[in-house]
Design brief:
CATH class of the largest domain: Mainly Beta
Number of domains: 2
Shape: elongated
Radius of gyration: 30 Å
Largest sheet: 6 strands, antiparallel, barrel
Low-confidence stretches: 20-24
Order of helices and strands: HEEEEEHHEEEEEHEEEEEH
Mean pLDDT: 79
Distance between the termini: 53 Å
Helix content: 25-40%
Structural class: alpha+beta
Number of strands: 15
CATH superfamily of the largest domain: Efflux pump adaptor protein, beta barrel domain
Strand order of the largest sheet: 1-10-14-12-11-15
CATH architecture of the largest domain: Beta Barrel
Length: 294
């Protein structure tokens, strides 16, 4: 009789344990790493292909939206401007000389003149794009001032920053085995700075880059930079992850100042509560899929 009671007690315990595993929701979360990133309007980019020239605003000084920061140069484009100006002057003289005596020749010269004036206007517009301006109020920050003079920049390439009091964003990289839950089942987000582990900041997901990628936004996320993501040592264009990653931008609810940008952070995504059995099943399934490259 005692043995039966023990067996029944063990069976009840197993049923209770199974019920807990299958039906009782428990907390679930996933981790990722990211870097503090400035908003797009804070990044100073080259407006056109050209060589960096002189600073028209002193690095470290306060600037306003629209202020001129850097003057870039394109010797080839400047030569085109000189040639076009000379051509316009030549056609204007030809038109003025022919207008009183030969209207047909004057009309031909006028049409050529209009075309060359349009070409000159285009060239001047392109030269204007070489003047780099601030997109917002803030402090003009140039990370490598000594290395900029004479360096060639392509259109859109990052040159400097204008840092304001606005909070930075977090550019976080999520591995493929966590992206579905981060995307669809995140209740809250917590961010911790690597060099200030005692400070935890609440954040929210702002946007996701639509497709997966392999290039990391910062070398700080790679193993060589102190992060956890393995990269291809043969890649020369930038840190390239060995597995597919997904990029999310997070906004702070109440975060650190913008002058902390570039630092690595640890991100914790709190997901919907669910039973342990569901969590285990999903982990085993993901392991199986990754092992067999499904």
């Amino acid at each position: 009789m005692l043995a039966v009671r023990k067996a029944l007690g063990g069976l009840v315990s197993l049923i209770a344990l199974a019920g807990v595993l299958v039906f009782v929701p428990v907390p679930y979360h996933s981790h990722a790493e990211g870097v503090l990133w400035l908003p797009e309007q804070a990044i100073v980019r080259a407006g056109a292909n050209g060589f960096a020239g002189e600073f028209l605003a002193q690095p470290g000084s306060a600037v306003g939206k629209g202020d001129v920061l850097i003057e870039c140069r394109d010797p080839g484009l400047e030569a085109q401007r000189q040639r076009s100006m000379a051509k316009v002057a030549e056609l204007e003289a030809e038109y003025a000389a022919n207008f009183p005596t030969d209207r047909a020749k004057a009309q031909i010269a006028f049409e050529k003149l209009q075309s060359e004036r349009a070409n000159l206007s285009t060239i001047r517009s392109r030269l204007t794009e070489l003047i780099v301006r601030a997109a917002q109020d803030g402090t003009f920050v140039v990370p490598q001032t000594a290395d900029m003079a004479g360096r060639f920049y392509r259109k859109g390439e990052q040159m400097a920053y204008v840092v304001s009091d606005a909070q930075p964003i977090v550019r976080v990289v999520v591995l493929q085995d966590s992206v579905d839950y981060v995307r669809s089942a995140t209740d809250s987000v917590r961010v911790r700075l690597v060099d200030r582990p005692a400070s935890i900041y609440a954040a929210r997901i702002l946007r996701e880059v639509p497709a997966g990628m392999d290039l990391l936004p910062s070398s700080a996320l790679a193993i060589d930079g102190g992060g956890e993501i393995a990269t291809d040592p043969r890649e020369t264009k930038g840190p390239k992850a060995l597995q597919r990653v997904f990029q999310f931008d997070l906004g702070f609810v109440d975060g650190p100042r913008a002058d902390y940008f570039g630092q690595r952070v640890l991100v914790r995504f709190e997901h919907h509560r669910e039973p342990l059995m569901e969590q285990w099943y999903r982990s085993i399934r993901l392991l199986f899929m990754s092992s067999f490259d499904v």
